[in-house]
Amino acid sequence: MSKSMICSCEDVTADDVRHAVSRGYCDVESVKRYTGFGTGICQGKSCLSAVASLLEKEKALKADAVVPFTPRPPLFPTELSLLASAPVDESLPPIGGVPQEVDAFPQALRPEGPVPAKAKVVIIGGGVMGLALAYNLARSGETDVVVLERGYLCAGASGRNGGGVRMQWGTPALVELAKRSIDVMKGFAREMGINVWLRQGGYLFLARKPEVAKRLERNVALHNRYGVPTRLVTPDAARDIVPGLTMKGCVAASFNPEDGVIFPWPFLWGYAQGCRKKGVRVETYTEVTGFEVSGGQVRKVKTDRGDIACDTVVLASGAWSPQVAKLVGVDLPNEPHRHEILSTEPLKPFLGPLVSVLDSGLYFSQSMRGEIVGGMGDPKEPPGLNMGSTLRFVSRFAHALMEQLPQVGHVKVLRQWAGCYDVTPDNNPILGRTPGLDNLLQMSGFVGHGFMMAPAVAERMAAWMITGESDELFTRFNLRRFAEGALEREDMIIG
Ligand SMILES: Cc1cc2nc3c(=O)[nH]c(=O)nc-3n(C[C@H](O)[C@H](O)[C@H](O)COP(=O)(O)OP(=O)(O)OC[C@H]3O[C@@H](n4cnc5c(N)ncnc54)[C@H](O)[C@@H]3O)c2cc1C
């Protein structure tokens, strides 16, 4: 019985599901991610009901909490070449998308019992930022910390991203942060006891327009000054790095062999597990609904499971941060922008680096499981918290990918999804104290690169919070800069 196969696409047994439950991953979305069931060719058509009934039978979930995971298009595995033939009107903005993910999680998933009545630090958002910060606080001795997450771990951008990690940035601050983060990632499996599938195959940036090529050239010099071995490469040399790459329309490229890709989900679970081991409370399916403020301080955080009195509150709610900040009367300049992404069937290893055409925002890499994972920004995408998937995206992406790598036309897309970039006016984060509410700390606005910034930012933020020593990161990227017009522009943005 224990070896009964539940998901034959991904080799998931009944025992694998029980193991996920024993680790605290009891709801269907979390079990899907923890075991991989439903992520293969059948997309859950043959295994979802088996997992649901096992969860109910094992009493891992109340009957009304057993709800199916969000279905992902396409309905059937579909070749990139076919998808590329769907017509796209580039003059119109993308509309809608499926599924329109619900804005509220089922009440039955909410844990029973209240949240703790008091905590020194309350962190709002259980994405990579919130969890990494909580872990670093606990590691430095501050364990009276509660992380509040309205959904499951991985519900936000941290569970929806491309896993790209790179040191190729346009400003010293981001080069240094990314460099430190990649160092942390290299030791993560050892420290946290979880495999995060880091593969340093490099990042190959391609430039079409001369001004973009100039940007690469300028940044190579910056990277080298900070010990990052990026080099400019000719189109021919780029074809040697990625055999089969056409370099169509491209005039230059830059390559850093130390950049790479990571699997985002276990990275979050590693931090969450580390937090819990050290006594931090990570409360999923618990939504922040308001605040109690007096004397220029946040006194209490209100949730749908009761209030928490606190000394410090950290706003780490990603693309939802402006919405949460509004609850306490603070205006943030961040705007959510949908970004779509997809994954194909697995292939034998053939692609070393993550490749990105900087001009168009196309990017693609090969994961350790062998899938091509990639996305592309859409200049017509309007702001808004939309996480639906469109045929327009797969068509634009497939077209742009096949222009650079025509041999993948026969490869089938298995799954597409979307998440929101948390975009600030200068493409840099918002960190540090909130003017007028001193104990409300900001930790948002990481656009499309928060995953690779989180380990380093969280380390520095925990040290800054605990020691009280000044750190220029929290003045450089303070919310105040938008009112003062002291923007810190970053121009190595994909999409
Ligand atoms: C398609 C896509 C591709 C990307 N690719 C990359 C990449 O290759 N490399 C990279 O470094 N970055 C990438 N990013 C960006 C990266 O994913 C984000 O910058 C990062 O995950 C942000 O982490 P976060 O913790 O700030 O936000 P999130 O992960 O979004 O976490 C915020 C959490 O707050 C919770 N929340 C919201 N409101 C409330 C409330 N009221 N109460 C309680 N909880 C609440 C949400 O449910 C959410 O889980 C990509 C993003 C997308 C969408």
TrEMBL record:
Domain SoxA A3: 3-84
Residue span, FAD dependent oxidoreductase domain: 120-464
Keyword terms of this UniProt record: Oxidoreductase
Molecular functions (GO terms): oxidoreductase activity
Gene3D superfamilies for this protein: BFD-like [2Fe-2S]-binding domain, D-Amino Acid Oxidase, subunit A, domain 2, FAD/NAD(P)-binding domain
Entry GO CC: cytoplasm
InterPro entries (UniProt xref): BFD-like_2Fe2S-bd_dom_sf, FAD-dep_OxRdtase, FAD/NAD-bd_sf, SoxA_A3
Highest rank taxon of the organism: Bacteria
Name of the protein described by the UniProt record: Sarcosine oxidase subunit beta family protein
Biological source species: Myxococcus stipitatus (strain DSM 14675 / JCM 12634 / Mx s8)
